[in-house]
Design brief:
By secondary structure, the chain is of the alpha/beta class. It folds into 2 domains: about 1-145 and about 310-340, Medium-chain alcohol dehydrogenases, catalytic domain (Quinone Oxidoreductase, Chain A, domain 1, Alpha-Beta Complex), CATH 3.90.180.10; about 150-285, NAD(P)-binding Rossmann-like Domain (Rossmann fold). It is about 25% helix and about 30% strand. The chain has 10 helices and 19 strands. It has helices at about 45-50, 140-145, 145-160, 175-185, 200-205, 220-230, 245-250, 275-280, 290-305, 320-330; strands spanning about 1-5, 15-20, 35-40, 65-75, 85-90, 95, 110, 120-125, 130, 165-170, 190-195, 210-215, 235-240, 240-245, 255-260, 265-270, 280-285, 310-315, 335-340. The strands form 5 sheets. Strands 3, 4, 5, 8, 9, 18 and 19 form a 7-stranded mixed β-sheet that branches. Strands 12-11-10-13-15-17 form a 6-stranded parallel β-sheet, sandwiched between helices. Strand 11, helix 5 and strand 12 form a beta-alpha-beta unit. It starts with a strand and ends in a 7-residue tail after the last strand. About 45% of the residues are buried. Keywords: Membrane, Transmembrane, Transmembrane helix. GO terms for molecular function: oxidoreductase activity. It comes from Mortierella polycephala.
Length: about 350
Amino acid sequence: MKAIVVKKTDHTPTYHDAQLVDVPKPELVEDGQALVEINAVSFNHREYWIRKGQYPGIVFGSILGADGVGRITDIKSEHPKHRVGDRVIIMPSTGWYKDPRGPEEAYYIRGGSHATGVFAEYHVAQQDDIFKAPEHLTDAEAAALPLAGLTAYRAVFTKGQVTQGQNVLITGIGGGVALMALAFCVAAGANVYVTSSDQGKILKAMRLGARGGVNYKDDKWGTHLERLAGGEQFDVVIDGAGGDGVKVFTKVLRLGGIIVSYGMTVKPKVDYTMAAVLRNIEIRGSTMGSRQELEQMLAFVTKHRLRPVVSQIWQGLESSEEAFEVMKNGSQFGKLVLSLKTSSKL
């Protein structure tokens, strides 16, 4: 079968190859496994960081990709939970089942790691790591959902404890996680505000339910944010940027406010000061989520008929380099998807 694998290179600056190669089609060897023919896959910034050599535990020669949707073509189980022909998504990681604090076992995100990825024509996974794709989603939307949806769901509800009527700030709108967090918070009845350096992305977010947004490159963006919120303080910040934003968060958050950090794309540290301590502001790290949280997320998406935002779709695994180039320049608003099936429900 065809698959995209990560190959180590000596490029300066570091940028490893993502090569389309022929590899053996996977076989079912353990009880409880299912073979999925992949219809569509989507990109996360994780694949880009792997190519830049900035992600831990890279396994060179392994298949990339954590997000995909497809149809089950074979099952090896005396007690199957699914049926051949079911349209399914795959849990984007292994080793985390239901503990809300963290993984119970050795934990790997699929793709470029010890857990093989889904950027391939076929993928084998345990039945327990396979879930029916929400019926209202297209293949492109379903492929865009797992990692971003799970990360956002845990950040918003498990860690952020967002509820109706709260004021929530989501930073860096336009990425997959931030957009899913926006959808979840709006569906929960929260008042959502966003940040971006692109006014066009702020306007798009407002069409998706945000109350307003500010440009984080403006020196006084915290003051502008307070004015937008009518002087009301914020309950929760969902942050994927890191860096100096915590100084502003400390000023705009209520006493006991929560900062959920699911990434640090701007700077890999935050400046948590005594001022935050005195205001009882908490920083809660949050990455991905458990199998149980994925199940809860899918139920929430189905109940509220939510749809991931898809920025662009290409045909075939051979188009992956084009998608990487779009991700590199950061112009996308939503997820980047490759369709592997010309007849798939896009």
